[in-house]
Amino acid sequence: MKLQLALDLVNIPEAIELVKEVEEHIDIVEIGTPIINIEGHRAVQAIKTAFPNLEVLADIKIMDAAGYEVANASQAGADIVTILGQAEDASIKGAVEEAKKQGKQILVDMIAVKDIQTRAKELDELGADYICVHTGYDLQAEGKDSFEDLRSIKSVVKNAKIAIAGGIKLETLPEVIKAQPDLIIVGGGITGKENKKEVAAQMQQLINAGVTA
Ligand SMILES: O=C([C@H](O)CO)[C@H](O)[C@H](O)COP(=O)(O)O
């Protein structure tokens, strides 16, 4: 089970400072959609250059021109690139094909997918490396989470790794660990805390110990 730090509401220098604080406790750094929208792939490049030993995920939430987008993110240094589960099958195939060519991986984000089990099964067959259940900021604000979705796709996905994102905190981590995802993505649950290093260390400890609710 890996821990991914999602960096969303910061600029490049702030992102570098944040990763420095917690780097020994995380496996993957996510360059979030808001940073990429403002800073572009320079953010991916800067983090990969500063932390060559960490995997870097570019959260570009691709919807079209998938092969082209994956090629650009890969060139910037991304190890994992995101595409939306709602994209056309042709786009998913294009992303998977280009990622394979570049030696990279694709994470499919299930944000806003309605029939999550059916789509997860299809995406698994299309060769996604990760399938990620995700409650975005706007639904988190309505008190939603993805814990039930995680359990629901676990039973149909045979090949892809399973990930979960959206509002996960130290207090809710044991419930997430109980469902045994391959990857746990945490943004504000670390970046919004005073002592980020301590929280990241505690999360890593719970994950390594497999502590469940
Ligand atoms: O993908 C994300 C969101 O859509 C904004 O781009 C976040 O990285 C993801 O939700 C994880 O962040 P937290 O919800 O703050 O844990």
UniProtKB/TrEMBL annotation:
Membrane-spanning ranges: none
One Gene Ontology term of the molecular function aspect: hexulose-6-phosphate synthase activity
Family matches, as SUPFAM superfamilies: Ribulose-phoshate binding barrel
Signal sequence interval, chain numbering: none
UniProt key word Lyase: yes
Functional pathway: One-carbon metabolism; formaldehyde assimilation via RuMP pathway; D-fructose 6-phosphate from D-ribulose 5-phosphate and formaldehyde: step 1/2
One Pfam family from the record: OMPdecase
Domain Orotidine 5'-phosphate decarboxylase: 2-203
Highest taxon above the source species: Bacteria
InterPro entries: 3-hexulose-6-phosphate_synth, Aldolase_TIM, HPS/KGPDC, OMPdeCOase_dom, RibuloseP-bd_barrel
E.C. code: 4.1.2.43
DNA-binding among keywords: no
Keywords, alphabetical: Carbohydrate metabolism, Lyase, One-carbon metabolism
Enzyme class: lyase
Reaction catalysed by this enzyme: D-ribulose 5-phosphate + formaldehyde = D-arabino-hex-3-ulose 6-phosphate
Family, per entry: Belongs to the HPS/KGPDC family. HPS subfamily.
PANTHER family associated with the record: 3-KETO-L-GULONATE-6-PHOSPHATE DECARBOXYLASE SGBH-RELATED (PTHR35039)
The protein's name: 3-hexulose-6-phosphate synthase
